[in-house]
Amino acid sequence: MPKTMPTAAELLQPQLPPIIRDLLDRLGLPVRIVHERPGSGLPRVQAALLEDDTGSLLVLFPRDQLLDLHRLKTVIGRTLVPAEARLQRLFDRERLSALPGLPALVDSPCLYDERLLQGPNLLLDSGQPHVLLEIDSEHYRSLLGDAACARFGVPLIRLRHNLQAHAEEPMEAVQGFTARRIRQRLERRVEIPPRQNTVLRIRQLHGNPRACSDDDVTNLIETDPALAAQVVSWAGLADTSHHPSAERVLSVEDAIVRVLGSDVVLNLSLGLSEIKLAEHAEAWEDMTPYWEEALYTATLMDGLCRAMPRGKRPEPGLAYLAGLLHNFGYLTLAHIFPSYFRLLSQHLRINPHVPHLLIEHHLLGITREQIGAWLMEHWRMPEELSVALRSQHDPGYRGRHAVYANLVYVAVNLLRNRGIGGTLQEEIPQQLLDELGLTRARAEEALDRVLAAETALRVLLAQPE
After folding, report:
1. Sheet containing 45-52, strands listed edge to edge, beginning at the edge strand earlier in sequence
2. pTM
3. Cα 222 from Cα 256, distance rounded (Å)
4. Do 177 and 373 contact (CB within 8 A), yes or no?
5. What are phi and psi of 324, to 5 degrees?
6. Which CATH architecture has domain 276-461?
7. 216-235, pLDDT tens digit by residue?
8. Domain spans in the chain, listed from the N-terminal domain onward
9. Which of 212, 23, 192 is nearest to 100 (CA)?
10. Which helix (H) or strand (E) holds 97?
11. In the CATH scheme, what is the code of domain 8-152?
């Protein structure tokens, strides 16, 4: 018998990954397939696959909570970490975008938070983006079988309250030992090495000074957040010490051409490249997405500036730097505090539904934005940069140098909407675009131009031959 063509209504019906569809059929579960929509009001299950030497464990908890591995250890007495390799194999094999909270999907014991079943209905990830499964709580309880039950999640509302309480004075008001220790370490000399790709290119330019121009050095430094920040800092300190009334250093080009010179920059950069990375190599290997996002954001900041009316445009060199360095605190954590970075990375992976600010403040008492902003101040970088880093997630910020922070907010969220950077997205307020003199169409055009140049951007980040 010939197959009938699907109707228009069937084509619009959300589709499930085959393994989830087959599993639901086998279990005979009465579920409703729904599109994800904000503010549905129904509790949602978050799933995490963890492991230790004993074996793996599927952990289920409400999506309005954070899973804290330390807290979990006090409850069950096990030191668990994300089961990354196993989870990735499952995702790749079955083409899943998220782990559904279905115990039968993974051959592991299960633990769930007792607050998970308080409502009449629940939402589960289906493994397909923006497609959820709605299920009656009693039917879901039957799926859990003899799974262990405990109370271990940390309510997000509590984390938001704690973060807001310290928002005005981020470095001074934080009371945690870890935050104080981080600040004390940053007050000492901090040097962050460039990317290995950058080091190889620096050595090439240094070994052939006659063929090396200021433009070559500038173009290289502008692709590396660690080098760019330190070069501008060196130039600012050198400029003010020799010429107290001199104009400020406002860009990498300014630092190289007007103050330091290419030879000095290459020599200083080679010095940074000798910093030992042995104890940090594990964290450093995973930083490719960081470098890519930094360069995309910087390039988009330049494009957004060009799209703004002339009277509203900020200093282009500083705008580019604000984009390149917007996540500099994350880089600082990776190099200066590898144990904290490892802990943070684990919690970010098992809590993809939680903004990183809440996770960082909960674990460390401080956020990467606060770390980056304070380091900009300590290095005597232009004030615009510390403001941009500190206030980049606040679309309502209208204080001093707000245009830089506002542009970073726009750039980061435009990129996230195209799958570059963090997974959590926010709708860009129209009022913010109006005040910047940008239309959504022109902002998207600027983004399209950046993405059209993706190949060229990747070449800049690529290993030199």
Report:
1. 81-82, 45-52, 55-62, 110-113, 148-150
2. 0.88
3. 11
4. no
5. -65, -35
6. Orthogonal Bundle (1.10)
7. 999 999 999 999 999 999 89
8. 8-152, 276-461
9. 23
10. none
11. 3.90.960.10
